[in-house]
């Protein structure tokens, strides 16, 4: 039986607010660093509740498009508010816990094995990755490529073909979790510090310490705004 005549989905009010905010930024020529009007003003101009405006701002914050400074307003992080569809955001939220669980299981073991099996070339690759990440962060970037290179170097240093294949099989999901984590305020510097702790343990051939440091890191990665967001709020 065809579902063409299934009930039509009604856009949540905050999704309509998102659309209006996107047009406001585009038409007003706003750029990164510019401040959005206060929530109370937006609610009045749009004719909606402050709760609807707040939920829309939360969605933009989750996607790294705005920075909310407590007591200081909401500021654009980019030159536009071209947010991904809420449905995609909901799907990403749904699968993220499973990805993070898999990362913790795999990467803690990889770090332990890397401490036991690493070669001078492996260590050089890890150091180069962290140098790259530090350079990215100094340039105001989140350090995504350096992060990727470091975790790839740890995987290679474990010299386990099967575990490396497992990591390749979830590479796309890992990229999502990496991007999600590194857009959190202050996270790039913290991740770099944690990577350095992992490297020290691997250099010193302390397998359990390397596994512990990696576990601590992956659990930090798991602390993202997206997982606190409640997409079911219809305000």
TrEMBL record:
<keyword id="KW-0805">Transcription regulation</keyword>
<keyword id="KW-0238">DNA-binding</keyword>
<protein>
    <submittedName>
        <fullName>FadR family transcriptional regulator</fullName>
    </submittedName>
</protein>
<dbReference type="Pfam" id="PF00392">
    <property type="entry name" value="GntR"/>
</dbReference>
<dbReference type="InterPro" id="IPR000524">
    <property type="entry name" value="Tscrpt_reg_HTH_GntR"/>
</dbReference>
<dbReference type="InterPro" id="IPR036388">
    <property type="entry name" value="WH-like_DNA-bd_sf"/>
</dbReference>
<dbReference type="InterPro" id="IPR008920">
    <property type="entry name" value="TF_FadR/GntR_C"/>
</dbReference>
<keyword id="KW-0804">Transcription</keyword>
<feature type="domain" description="HTH gntR-type">
    <location>
        <begin position="11"/>
        <end position="79"/>
    </location>
</feature>
<dbReference type="InterPro" id="IPR036390">
    <property type="entry name" value="WH_DNA-bd_sf"/>
</dbReference>
<dbReference type="Pfam" id="PF07729">
    <property type="entry name" value="FCD"/>
</dbReference>
<dbReference type="InterPro" id="IPR011711">
    <property type="entry name" value="GntR_C"/>
</dbReference>
